[in-house]
């Protein structure tokens, strides 16, 4: 008889509602949870929270001491208003809809976070049914949110439908730039986006411009780094833009301006197509996306290229033909009908039939990043056979697997003979390559993980871990070891007739006491050393997954003497983990293992070596337990130091140098083996004295043996504390990363060769992060590994065993030590408080940048690395700073933690003139600062070097044609300044705008005052009228808790001062600094040289004008050009005069005149020219002729009748070997004069020129003298260098002698008495 059930749920609901109302009363204390949400506190009951919300259940279970005190929980990302509605729902099942749609959506997101499933479902339906307009107006926000959780999939499908109908809601949105990269890429890939290709391109460029940091919308204003950054932002999108469907007008206005950011082969073909376009089609090699044949157009006779690149919905030439014999309703969005049919045949064989689509029911789909192990199991557990499909990110590859059993979160292996994995790879043409791989090890077919374990198909596909190994399935699926899933689908599969109980599907439960497989040559009972022999034993039936596999041993044990031969050195205790199955082990196998490892023997210990005894103590049929070691690695200090040793096993009289001494030894145990058995009769009856007993049976017997690896740390005692802390941090991170299969970010910029040496047992030095990680991974994650016996525990004296008076000794290992710690004790706080973490947290390898907005920021590029550990000094100084800046510049520096005065006008490459020159008086405010120092870091030049990337960039700039411009871009990226002294600590600030004149800038030591009395500090603050300070993040610290804040060491550190600031270029190598200094000097230099042929000139003319274009373009039109006309045989032509004019950014004109009768064909000649100006003016400065020192003299002279010699005073001493170039210009008539200028003589201070008139083309009796006064400007250039040749920029490595273009000062034309000769003559001074 069944008892009647009385339903009183209505009173219960009323009681819960009353309980919720009582929570709102101020005097109610009947609760045990306080929930902090921003500035508000909410009361609650843990029992109700845990029952109603999975989120709170996990949160409360993770809280300690929940029964001894009230629990305080903090929740972020939810407003108090929204949380109050959620709390009401938790207690009553009711909530009121907010009036504002934004708040409704926030409530929807909060409900998902708190795992309030009923509220999520209701609000999702409500938004879709009632708030269509709001969703469309906020489509980007809603769509991006819908992709973050599988609980939002209905909303995601709804948004997808809106985007299909109205893509402009996305692409023309004012917040389009906030769209995540992967989401935008997927949108552009879609075939159902109803936008023209040019609209997609325009919006893509808009999105790229507005990402952080923003890039100027005008590509003509970009520098090199802008271009590279833009390329990086659009590279993934370019293959999906169908450029050849864009009209020529749109191409030239919208696409062509970005040609420098597009692949050059694409640009070349686009230019050819749009410029030459005469019915030609683009080359087939151009990138195109062709998802199936239905999107191809047939060839047409129009000028539109037959590229098949029109988007669906934008008018195909003909509607695609569709096979009506198959259902149009898609089963999957990842694979096509043909592929589904193929999978159906793999599962059902010939039973698949034509209705195969009905055999697959979708359980889950979406973005893989939004799927957790918990959500996978909640959706897919206990559903019967399943098929998983997954698209690999950034590829056209689909992988998948079939599980003929149910997922159940059992953390066990599912045995199956019918499971398989597969791969579809598409080449874009509709032709797929398929790989089908059957299981070959049914015992390791599928691992059914849970929330803390991966789900996998053997070792081959670890889905959440993203790892692949060709192990337990027949064919290799992929060539890589790692993969990333983009999208997924899971289907429930209708059972086939093959799925019956005769297959004996079962689960292999892993034993806790015997967690692993032990095998070697003894696995089948024989001692053969043929490890490749074919035996019936099974491969290892479990992987090394991402995350701990409970109760599993990561391999199998075998001794190096695998064949059982006891000859040789029985102290060789290196072991090899190999594959095997615990289920295949027999009692004979245990005995063989005990025999191989001599687990029933005693130990002979002399302090520096441990040997197995000659005779066994116990029988070999005892109890053997093998378990994973669950403790921490063990650190031994001062290893094998006989002076400081406290190990009582050491016989110091026998101590010798065969022991390898080190400062620290670290044991990394992997497995522990325990053996218990019955004493052998021969041992029990042995009546020998202790000495003979020890020779036969050893001094001790080890109940417990640790197996793993050792690392030795050398030179630790001579290292600085900074080096020690960094080393500890690296070891701790490498261990935890390998042991727990988690990724811990390590600052690889800090190299291990700067630290104490890490050495393995076989002497290998682990001097790189890669070597250290490989060693750790080999120990903890690889299936095959070399390990050794590293320690013996629970030692029992053999004499006590015989006498049955057992008193175990703790532990022994070869060698001796002073102190023993576990890893966490040894590391302490070094993980979070060391130089390596500071490099990342405080950007110590980066420079300081003054930006355009009158601010300072830390560069994003790394400019230095360490060559030596810098000096780091602890500090406990605390002080109050009162600073009254006298200039705006000083105020700017103080605002950015720079307190020493600097003249930034002397710092190159800082282009913010407001910052550099702002020295005007400033008395608007006073800075009141509280500083608590922790560390001083000194980054002196001898400790640092340029990063490889920075050094390469500088070298490239110095060798470029525009070094100053590129250097400016580089320093804008890497930093303008570099602080060589950085103070870490904590700081507070207040700014006063009125302060009595009696208060001057000063620094007051707080700790010294507070140790006597806090009154002086408080009194001073009262006088300053300061009641609070602000932290750098804006938190208020009231004056009355200031002393407590100062004494609290737990506050997070920050940079509180930059000091010893130097220009970043001052840390360059000396030779690079010299080159940069040379560029920065405001002197005349040879900026560019060239040679231009005159083949297009008419030989019959006597005056020629030749346009000469230059590359790269100049930044100004003010410069000078010097040169000459040379013959094809490279000889200077004295009878042909050349001058230069009409200068612009792109080039200049050469004006060529014949000054005397010549038979030379001008069209066979060349103009040799060089541009002279200050590099800072034009920014172009070729590296070819930077060795030349250049002086320019500009003088005005008056040419007088019957006078030919003119004397010019040099502005600097002339020397032999100098080259002089001179050109004349007539300013009054604006024409090139028909004159000939020749160098006559020179001295150290003067130059003598002969100036005569050309009589070419004049009557025979014409005079060469000037017949009337002519005002003439002489432009004189003097080159000073030991080099005799000019390198020509536009003609490869060709060099031309200086005397081809000018006059070289020689001994022959030197006249030291020149001044005496000309003292009666007017001398013209140069300027």
Low-confidence stretches: 283-329, 499-588, 642-660, 811-816, 1009-1014
- In round numbers, the mean pLDDT is 76
State the secondary-structure class. Answer: alpha+beta
| Spatial separation of the terminal alpha carbons | 124 Å
- Quaternary structure of the protein: single chain
Main sheet summary? 9 strands, antiparallel
How big is the Rg? 42 Å
Number of strands: 54
The global form is globular
Helix content: 10-25%
Q: How much of the polypeptide forms β-strand, as a percent range?
A: 15-25%
How many helical stretches?
35
Structure description:
- This protein is α+β, with helices and mostly antiparallel strands and 1327 residues long.
- Strand 42 (1136-1141) and strand 43 form a beta hairpin.
- Helix 2 (46-52) crosses helix 3 (54-61), helix 5 (101-113) runs antiparallel to helix 6 and helix 8 (139-146) crosses helix 9 (153-165).
- It is globular, with a radius of gyration of 42 Å.
- 33% of the residues are buried.
In short:
Helix content is 25%, strand content 25%. Strands 16, 19, 20, 21, 22, 23, 24, 25 and 26 form a 9-stranded antiparallel sheet that branches. A 6-stranded antiparallel sheet has the order 4-14-5-6-8-9, with helices on one face.
């Amino acid at each position: 008889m069944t008892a009647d059930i009385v339903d009183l749920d209505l009173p219960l609901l009323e009681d819960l509602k009353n309980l919720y109302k009582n929570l709102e009363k101020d005097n109610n204390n009947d609760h045990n949870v306080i929930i902090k949400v921003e500035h508000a506190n909410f009361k609650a009951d843990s029992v109700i929270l845990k029952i109603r919300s999975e989120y709170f259940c996990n949160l409360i279970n993770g809280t300690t001491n929940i029964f001894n005190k009230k629990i305080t929980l903090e929740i972020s990302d939810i407003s108090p208003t929204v949380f109050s509605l959620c709390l009401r729902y938790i207690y009553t099942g009711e909530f009121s809809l907010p009036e504002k749609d934004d708040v409704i959506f926030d409530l929807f997101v909060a409900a998902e976070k708190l795992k309030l499933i009923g509220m999520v479902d209701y609000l999702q339906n409500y938004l879709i049914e009632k708030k269509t307009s709001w969703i469309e107006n906020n489509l980007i926000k809603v769509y991006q949110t819908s992709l973050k959780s599988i609980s939002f999939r209905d909303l995601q499908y709804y948004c997808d439908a809106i985007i299909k109908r109205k893509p402009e809601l996305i692409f023309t949105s004012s917040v389009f730039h906030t769209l995540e990269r992967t989401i935008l890429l997927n949108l552009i890939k879609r075939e159902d986006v109803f936008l023209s290709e040019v609209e997609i391109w325009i919006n893509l460029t808009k999105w790229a411009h507005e990402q952080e940091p923003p890039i100027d919308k005008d590509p003509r204003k970009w520098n090199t780094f802008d271009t590279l950054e833009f390329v990086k932002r659009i590279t993934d999108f370019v293959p999906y833009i169908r450029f050849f469907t864009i009209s020529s007008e749109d191409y030239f206005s919208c696409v062509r301006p970005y040609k420098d950011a597009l692949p050059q082969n694409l640009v070349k073909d686009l230019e050819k197509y749009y410029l030459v376009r005469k019915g030609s089609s683009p080359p087939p090699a151009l990138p195109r996306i062709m998802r199936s044949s239905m999107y191809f157009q047939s060839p047409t006779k129009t000028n539109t290229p037959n590229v098949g690149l029109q988007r669906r919905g934008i008018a195909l030439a003909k509607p695609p033909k569709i096979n009506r014999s198959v259902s149009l309703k898609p089963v999957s969005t990842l694979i096509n009908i043909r592929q589904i049919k193929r999978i159906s045949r793999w599962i059902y064989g010939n039973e698949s039939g034509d209705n195969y689509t009905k055999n697959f029911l979708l359980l889950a789909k979406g973005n893989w990043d939004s799927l957790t192990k918990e959500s996978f199991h909640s959706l897919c557990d206990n559903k019967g056979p399943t098929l998983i499909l997954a698209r690999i990110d950034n590829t056209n590859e689909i992988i998948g697997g079939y599980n003929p059993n149910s997922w159940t979160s059992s953390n066990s292996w599912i045995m199956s003979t019918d499971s398989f994995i597969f791969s579809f790879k598409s080449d874009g043409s509709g032709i797929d390559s398929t790989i089908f791989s059957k299981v070959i090890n049914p015992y390791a077919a599928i691992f059914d993980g849970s929330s803390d374990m991966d789900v996998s198909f053997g070792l081959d596909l670890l889905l959440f871990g993203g790892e692949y190994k060709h192990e337990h399935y027949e064919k290799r699926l992929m060539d890589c070891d790692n993969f990333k899933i983009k999208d997924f689908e899971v289907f429930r599969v209708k059972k086939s007739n093959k799925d019956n109980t005769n297959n004996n599907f079962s689960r292999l439960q892993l034993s806790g006491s015997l967690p692993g497989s032990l095998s070697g040559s003894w696995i089948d009972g024989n001692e053969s050393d043929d490890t490749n022999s074919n035996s019936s034993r099974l491969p290892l039936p479990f992987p090394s997954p991402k995350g701990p596999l409970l109760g599993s041993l990561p391999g199998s044990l075998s001794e190096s003497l695998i064949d059982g031969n006891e000859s040789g050195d029985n102290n060789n205790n290196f072991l090899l983990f190999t594959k095997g199955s615990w289920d295949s082990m027999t009692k004979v196998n245990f005995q063989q293992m005990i025999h191989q490892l001599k687990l029933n023997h005693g130990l002979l210990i002399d302090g520096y070596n441990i040997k197995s005894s000659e005779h066994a103590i116990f029988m070999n049929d005892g109890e053997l337990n093998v378990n994973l070691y669950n403790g921490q690695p063990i650190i031994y200090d001062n290893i094998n130091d006989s002076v400081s040793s406290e190990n009582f096993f050491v016989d110091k009289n026998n101590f010798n140098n065969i022991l390898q001494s080190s400062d620290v030894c670290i044991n990394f145990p992997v497995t522990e083996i325990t053996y218990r058995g019955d004493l052998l009769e021969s041992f029990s009856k042995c009546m020998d004295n202790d000495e003979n007993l020890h020779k036969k049976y050893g001094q001790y017997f080890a109940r417990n043996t640790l197996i793993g690896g050792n690392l030795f740390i050398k030179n630790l005692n001579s290292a600085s504390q900074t080096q020690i802390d960094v080393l500890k941090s690296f070891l701790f991170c490498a261990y935890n990363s390998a042991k727990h299969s988690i990724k811990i970010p390590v600052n690889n910029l800090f190299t291990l060769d700067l630290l104490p040496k890490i050495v393995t047992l076989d002497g290998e030095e682990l001097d790189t992060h890669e070597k250290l990680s490989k060693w750790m991974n080999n120990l903890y994650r690889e299936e095959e590994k070399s390990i050794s016996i590293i320690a013996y525990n629970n030692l029992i004296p053999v004499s006590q065993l015989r006498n049955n008076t057992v008193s175990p000794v703790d532990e022994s290992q070869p060698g001796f030590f002073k102190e023993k710690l576990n890893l966490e004790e040894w590391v302490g706080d070094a993980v979070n408080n060391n130089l390596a973490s500071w490099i990342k947290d405080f950007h110590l390898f980066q420079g300081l940048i003054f930006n355009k907005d009158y601010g300072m920021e830390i560069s994003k590029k790394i400019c230095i690395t360490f060559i030596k550990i810098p000096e780091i000094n602890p500090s406990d100084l605390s002080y109050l700073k009162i600073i009254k800046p006298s200039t705006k510049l000083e105020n700017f520096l103080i605002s950015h933690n720079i307190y020493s005065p600097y003249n930034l006008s002397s710092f190159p490459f800082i282009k913010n003139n407001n910052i550099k020159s702002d020295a005007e008086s400033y008395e608007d405010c006073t800075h009141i600062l509280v500083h608590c120092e922790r560390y001083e870091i000194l980054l002196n030049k001898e400790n640092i070097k340029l990063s490889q990337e920075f050094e390469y960039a500088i070298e490239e700039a110095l060798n470029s044609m525009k070094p100053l411009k590129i250097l400016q871009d580089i320093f804008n990226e890497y930093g303008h300044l570099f602080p060589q002294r950085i103070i870490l600590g904590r700081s507070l600030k207040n700014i006063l705008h009125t302060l009595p004149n009696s208060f001057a800038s000063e620094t007051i030591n707080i700790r010294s005052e507070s140790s006597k009395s806090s009154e002086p500090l408080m009194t001073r603050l009262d006088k300053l009228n300061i009641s609070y300070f602000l932290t750098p993040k804006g938190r208020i610290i009231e004056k009355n808790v200031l002393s407590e804040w100062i004494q609290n060491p737990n506050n997070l550190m920050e940079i509180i001062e930059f000091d010893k600031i130097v220009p970043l270029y001052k840390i360059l190598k000396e030779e690079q600094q010299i080159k940069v200094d040379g560029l920065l000097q405001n002197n005349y230099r040879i900026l560019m040289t060239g040679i231009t042929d005159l083949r297009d000139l008419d030989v019959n003319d006597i005056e020629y004008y030749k346009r000469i274009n230059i590359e790269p373009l100049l930044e100004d039109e003010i410069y000078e050009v010097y040169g000459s006309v040379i013959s094809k045989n490279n000889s200077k032509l004295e009878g042909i005069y050349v001058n230069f004019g009409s200068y612009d950014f792109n080039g200049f004109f050469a004006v060529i005149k014949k000054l005397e009768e010549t038979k030379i064909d001008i069209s066979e000649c060349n103009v040799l020219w060089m541009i002279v100006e200050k590099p800072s003016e034009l920014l172009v400065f070729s590296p070819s002729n930077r060795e030349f020192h250049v002086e320019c003299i500009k003088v005005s002279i008056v040419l007088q009748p019957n006078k030919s010699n003119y004397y010019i005073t040099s502005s600097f001493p002339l020397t032999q070997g100098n080259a002089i170039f001179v050109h004349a210009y007539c300013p009054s008539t604006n024409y090139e004069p028909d004159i000939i200028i020749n160098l006559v003589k020179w001295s150290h201070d003067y130059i003598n020129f002969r100036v005569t008139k050309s009589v070419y083309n004049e009557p025979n009796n014409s005079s060469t003298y000037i017949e009337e006064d002519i005002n003439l400007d002489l432009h004189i250039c003097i080159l000073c260098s030991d080099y005799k040749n000019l390198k020509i920029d536009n003609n490869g490595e060709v060099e031309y002698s200086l005397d081809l273009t000018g006059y070289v000062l020689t001994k022959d034309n030197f006249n030291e008495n020149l001044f005496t000769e000309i003292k009666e003559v007017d001398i013209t001074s140069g300027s």
